[in-house]
Structure formats: C-alpha cells, structure tokens
Amino acid sequence: MTKSKNKKNRSVKKLSYIILILTGLLFIWYIASDRITPNTDQARVKGLVLSVAPMVNGYVTQVNVELHSEVKKGDTLFIIDRKPYEIAVAIAETNLEKVSQSINAGVSSIKAATARLSKAKVNLDRSTKNWERTQRVIAQNEGALSQRDEERSEASYLNAIEEVSAAQAGVEKELAALGPTDANNPDAKAVVNQLEKAEWELAHTIIVAPSDGVIESFNVEVGYFAGAGRAMVSLVSNNALWIQANLKENNLSNINIGNEVDVIFDIKPGKVYQGKVESIAYGVSTDQTNAGDLPRITTAQGWLRDPQRFPVIIKMENPEIMQQLRQGSQAEIVVYTGNNWLLNFLASARITIMSKLSYVR
Questions:
Q1: For the chain, what are the domain ranges?
Q2: Secondary structure (3-state) at 152
Q3: Alpha carbon 192 to chain centroid, angstroms
C-alpha cells in the first residue's frame, strides 16, 4: 500500500515538473516570439475611399451606375442637365464675336485717322514750302508780293500746322480707345475668360470616375439635384490597398522596413500569403483632440494595461490577392525580424494552423 502510494506521489511530482517545464518553455517562447516573431490578429485591409462630387449645380438627367457597380477611371457616372451651360457657352461665344467686331471697327477708325494725319502732313509740307518761297521773294524784293498775299501764305502755313496736330491727336485717341488689338486687349481677355469658364462648367456636367473602383453609398436617381462640392456617391478605389497591422509598442523594437511577413485572410481561409513591412507609424492619437489627423487605435481595457499599439503597413507581394480583397477585411500577420530558425519555424507553423482554422471562424 505504501509502495503504491509512493509511486503515485512520484508520478504526480513528475507530471507537475513536466507541466512546470512546459509552462516555463511556453512562457519563454511567448516572450521571445513577442520580440523576434511578433504577431497580431488586429490587422485589416485598408484603402482609399473617394467622395465623388460634382463641380457644378444642376439636376441629374442620366445615371449610368448603381450600388456596387465596378467602374474604370474615366467612366461616365452621371450627367447633369447641360442645357443651361450650353446656353452660357453660346452667350460667351456671341460676346467674343462682338468684341472681335468692335476691335475690327476700331482698327478701321485708326486707319482713317492715320490717313487724315498723312493728308495733313502733305498739306503742311506744301504750305511750308509756299511760306518759305514767299519769305525768299519778299527778302529779295519787298514789293514783289502784296501784304495780302503774304498774310494768306502765312495763314495757310499756320493752319497746316494745326491740322497736323489735330490729326495726330485723333490717331492717339483712336489708339487709346481701341487698346491692344491682340489677345492682350482687355475686352478680348474678359470675353475669352468668360468663354473658358462656360466651357469648363459645361465639361463638368459629365461626372466621371476618378479611379478604378466600386460604387458605394449610392442614393441618386434621375431628377436628383446635385450641388457643387456635395458628395453624390463614394468610390472605393481598388488601385491602392494595403494591410494595416496594429502591433504592440513592445513588438516594434526589432521590426525594420523590409522584414518578411506572413499574412492570412478570413476571406481566403487555408492560405498563407507573403508580404513585407513597408512603413511603421511614428504617432497615434491618444486623446479627443486629433488636429493632425493621426491614426486612432483602440486598446483593450483590463486588469493589466494593454501596451499602446502602432500601425505597421504591410505591402503584399502577390498582386492577385489584392484584387480579391475588400476594404475592411480582417487579417492576421506574423513578422519575421531575425534568422532564428526555431522561432521562425514555430511562428510559421502557428500561422499555418490559424489559416486552417479560418474555415470554422
């Protein structure tokens, strides 16, 4: 009886030692893996969500998409009533024609004023020569010409000078009224700007997709009044997707840009995908003020203070899986920060097992 009891006690002690050793090994593994092969299930697929808003006001006359429609960059989504903007373009074109005609008329006036100036100069040249000749005759023979002839010649000369001055002033006046006759003419610039604005607004009555993606938050139909700058739908872009893994602060000490990462997705259970660390956040929001728009990370509350988490951005190496993911999809990752074959093997085995368990989550 005593022997049986002693044997049982030794078995209990042996089992206790085994449990203690296993517990110690698991604890050591947990501490080491937390630094060398950190992992987290707080990972999600992130991407860009673009608000599609018109640049002009008007009623929607055509809708080419619906909820969850896949679109390509440049595809026409909606058309706003174009009639008011077509009228604005026609008015601007008419104003441009009027200014062109006005400029042409001004050029004709300048030509006429220039012709009058030329005629006045010719007349002045003749009167000057006649006056000079009269002066020479009088100098040679005082009685050769009468006083009246002398006065008439002088009056003609002085009048020719006045005509030239008046004609010159007329040319300058026409030039000032017309201004530049090219694109720098103020009136021409004004109507050209008006036309450009009208054509720009007309072009923006057609609302196109700014990127490849999927339509979300759809609530538009024909007759909807679209306001400039007011979002009509959201476009979930599939051109830029990434994985954001929120790792604990004490996981970051050994993580470097370019470290290899294994990733599993709930949307693709049973498979492990490879990626690399692309960037590590330098700050997160810790209170209600978020003026700098830093990432917000929610930490669990319990008896022990949960370490602060920071976003680590993972870039996937397989572009095909990125086309199958959806924004907000959940993921789990493990980062390999060193060459410790044992810890790397255990981490790889663990995430492979977790990928299989994704079937029953």
A1: 36-47+237-360, 54-82+207-230, 84-201
A2: helix
A3: 26
